[in-house]
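Running this now, will post back.
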Amino acid sequence: MLKRMTLKHKRSKTLNTTQMPQGEHARGHKEDKNLRTCCVTRESLPKSELIRFALGPNGEILPDIAGKAGGRGVWVTANKHILAQAVAKNAFARTLKTQVNVPDNLVEITQTHLEKRLLGALGLAMKGGHLVTGYEKVRSAIEKEKINALIAASDGSMDGRKKITQLLRAMELEDEVPQIDFLNAEQLSLALGGKNVIHAALVGGAATKSAVDRAKQLVRFSAENTG
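Update: finished.
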């Protein structure tokens, strides 16, 4: 189950979201090019707030999380409840005006894809030297104010997590450092090539923004409140 994720950033890292026109391929003004329309709500949103679903050659609809698959596609607001509505209302077939094969567990498939994409981003950050693991290394990164995002295993010791949070607060970084705390130790260990990874931190590079953006999308997808 996904837990809280703090998504406040330093001013230089603020993410902008603007709302404008419709369609899988937005038309009109140049600034509208990153907007798409949800096939359920009909609301035009930035691509970062939706998920594209692509029609495969066998007529099956599957999530295209990166939004780069070829062929025809449909955009759905990145939330499990709205995706469930798309399935129930046959929105994919209506939008594409053709028969499609929609997996019964499309919501679960989509969440798994989102988790894998986030874990992949963390793994790349690790390989690039932009992620550290272990309580002491994370503590050192906080003390040196070199931490860009904090990662804590959801099944880790509450005492250890509390101490890290208290240190962030003492350094006046709690409201500036995004916290990803809904992945378990097994997931983190497999992605980062370690054993029993409980504490980790992103410490720089483009990988930080990529990982935080993907975590934000996963939190939005699992949210109970779609408002």
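The CA atoms of residues 17 and 177 lie 20 Å apart. More later if anyone needs it.
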